[in-house]
Write a structure and sequence with these properties.
Helix content: 25-40%
Structural class: alpha+beta
CATH topology of the largest domain: BirA Bifunctional Protein, domain 2
CATH architecture of the largest domain: 2-Layer Sandwich
Number of strands: 16
Number of domains: 2
Length: 495
């Protein structure tokens, strides 16, 4: 790997290359001198290796067939030489053994095949048999070089282990580690299952702007950019919420969007600045309806991807209130200390740290994130949040000072946030004004005032429930990963 990294930029003359790279380039030149194109345009009719294996699952040891298959992949191993050799070919679905025999290929073709380097991409036509040791094998009848690899693959016996290289050079991780390939295939299956569930339940997938004139829908700092032609500042969206609720106003009634959001925050095992979120909104529903749909959705996804972990996603999930969970775990009653000074004093009396610049909502979030969230291992809903933390949620119908909001937690990590949506435009306007006051007090992550959204609400929005589910975190749960960088193909990295 050190040699590869050292020569990742402009290519020096061959004489200055490390020998391992220079040797591969000499082979490239030799192929072209022989009239062989090392980078052909196509290789049609390829079957996945897994399909070939499935087709011959019943073959007995030593049994041969005349069934011919065409496969393609990366040369991963080679054993033997002379009159017979065995090679391993790997595609995204698995690995298969190849048998090369000089009496089948001829001496010249046999020599060319054995001269290829590990990492080269080959297309192979062969007939299937099962070796005496029980290994399904293709006897090579013909082969084609599909791409000459000019750099050696990662070390073959132990896979690519260096974490920094795995994240920065994900292509090497995928080449070297079958587990990485399987993980990202599982991620794709999670996303497909989410779409199937919502499509089946009558939701319509939509797309809203990524570049927005005003960010909103969450408490976060945005990334800022400039549109030259419009001569105006724009923001990468931090959420899709406000646009999706405008579609509810417009009469689409059940909508969802699955895409990227961007929040200009620090890196952590649970947060990447660019992340994938599902948001869906349902007219004539409240947060209890959304909680039921959320737990059914997650249980469906787990079933579809063959989840084998320790969590039980079967509805109904465990349920607590936010205030009750904080009181049980810290002894602090946030509902009895509704001013910052009172809450700070209650926290200090319990020996808890009180960040000097935090507002009352930020102190509540501190209690939740540090003292409650890590304890919520099994699927759990926390219901009924203070209104100060939830500027877009409808007031609780029976508990003053609270809103109808829940967050979902699995494995000590928040995966979802949901509301009965606030649809009173005058109340929403007051909430936005309260957010302005919090901003003046030093909170940089408040919801900005959005007059266009207010005007949309003034057209009339039906009773609505909505939710945001973090897809990256859901994949972490489904695969047992503890860092978001493991489940994002190209995570943000420091220089």
């Amino acid at each position: 790997m050190a040699e590869e990294e050292a020569h990742g930029g402009a290519m020096p003359p061959d004489g200055e290359l490390p020998e391992v790279l220079a040797a591969r380039r000499r082979k490239l030149d030799a192929l072209r001198d022989e009239g062989i194109e090392p980078f052909p345009h196509e290789f049609r009719g390829v079957e996945p290796i897994a399909a070939v294996r499935d087709a011959h699952a019943e073959l007995e040891h030593g049994e041969e067939t005349d069934v011919r298959h065409r496969v393609a992949g990366r040369l991963a191993a080679r054993r033997g030489q002379g009159k017979m050799a065995f090679l391993d070919l790997v595609d995204r679905s698995g690995r298969i053994q190849l048998q090369a025999r000089v009496d089948v290929l001829g001496a010249e073709a046999m020599e060319r095949l054995l001269h290829f380097d590990l990492g080269d991409l080959l297309g192979v036509d062969g007939t299937a048999f099962r070796s005496r040791r029980g290994e399904l094998t293709l006897r090579v009848q013909d082969f084609t070089l599909l791409a000459k690899s000019l750099r050696p693959p990662p070390e073959k016996h132990h896979g690519l282990q260096d974490t920094e290289t795995r994240f920065r050079r994900r292509e090497l991780d995928l080449i070297a580690n079958a587990e990485a390939r399987e993980l990202f295939l599982t991620r794709a299956h999670v996303i497909s299952a989410v779409r199937r569930f919502l499509d089946r339940e009558g939701f319509v997938e939509v797309e809203t702007p990524v570049l927005q004139p005003l960010y909103g829908g969450a408490a976060a700092r945005p990334f800022t950019t400039h549109h030259n032609a419009l001569s105006r500042t724009l923001y990468l969206r931090i959420a899709t919420e406000l646009y999706l609720k405008r579609l509810i106003v417009g009469g689409l009634e059940r909508v969802y969007e699955l895409g990227k959001d961007f929040r200009n925050e620090g890196l952590s095992p649970k947060h990447n600045p660019e992340f994938t979120v599902l948001e869906f909104y349902e007219a004539y529903a409240d947060y209890l309806d959304i909680a039921s749909r959320c737990e059914r959705l997650v249980a469906y996804v787990a079933d579809q991807v063959g989840y084998q972990g320790a969590h039980d996603f079967t509805p109904p999930w465990h349920r607590e209130t936010l205030a009750g969970a904080i009181l049980d775990r810290t002894g602090v009653d946030i509902l009895a200390a509704r001013e910052r000074g009172a809450l700070a004093a209650a926290m200090r009396s319990r020996g808890l740290a009180v960040p000097a610049q935090d507002t009352w909502p930020q102190l509540v979030d501190e209690l939740l994130s540090k003292h409650v969230e890590p304890t919520l291992i099994e699927p759990t809903f926390l219901f009924d949040y203070p209104v100060e933390l939830s500027p877009l949620a409808k007031r609780h119908r029976s508990r003053p000072g609270l809103v109808e909001r829940f967050e979902a937690f699995i494995g000590g990590m928040e995966i979802a946030n949901a509301f009965t949506e606030l649809n009173d435009p005058d109340e929403q306007r007051r909430r936005f004004e309260e957010q302005r006051a919090l901003a003046s007090a030093g909170d940089e992550e408040v919801q900005p005032y959005d007059e266009a959204f207010i005007q949309a609400l003034e057209q009339g929005m039906p009773p609505t429930g909505g939710i945001g589910i973090g897809i990256d975190r859901l994949v972490m749960v489904m695969t047992g990963m503890r860092s978001i960088r493991e489940v994002v193909l190209f995570p943000a990295m420091r220089d």
